[in-house]
Amino acid sequence: MNIELLQPKPFDLVSSTIMLAGNAVAFEGTLSVSVSEGHDEITGFVTVGSTSIRQFQGTIAIPSDAAFQLSRLFVTVSDDTAGGGESPPPMVTVPVIYGPMILPDYVGFRNYTVQRGDSLSAIANRFYNDRSLFRVIQQANAHLVEDPNVIFPGQVLRIPVAD
């Protein structure tokens, strides 16, 4: 495969502008990018090497009117420009968590290391002054926290931040 996607990493917490980076080569130096969750799809492209593997970087903007219904999105980068042939085109798909779907006006996150005696509701109260927002923290860490009642000292959780 001639596509190595270094950013985003699986389960990264992303904003409405998703940054892409990696190493790749593609026919005519162009990779297609799509962001989808099954209800809507946003597409774009990035420029990469056309004769040899090169580093690339780019962004894809998610418009405010995107019809996403889930916070878990899939970012797919593919070389589908070559066409023809029996084999499918090279493709990399990475699941990410879309911050604006879990916290309005999402701009980023801070890391928090779970302490002995912490609960998600106590952490939510500390950062949002609202214990009921524990689900925001759970969704931002869905790959780590399946049950909101089970967190462990030493776990590093992402705490979404809004403007």
UniProtKB/TrEMBL annotation:
CDD domains: LysM (cd00118). It comes from Fulvimarina pelagi HTCC2506. InterPro entries: Bact_Kbp, Gmad2_Ig-like_dom, LysM, LysM_dom_sf. Residues 110-159 form the LysM domain. It comes from the Bacteria. The lineage of its organism: Bacteria, Pseudomonadati, Pseudomonadota, Alphaproteobacteria, Hyphomicrobiales. This is LysM domain-containing protein.
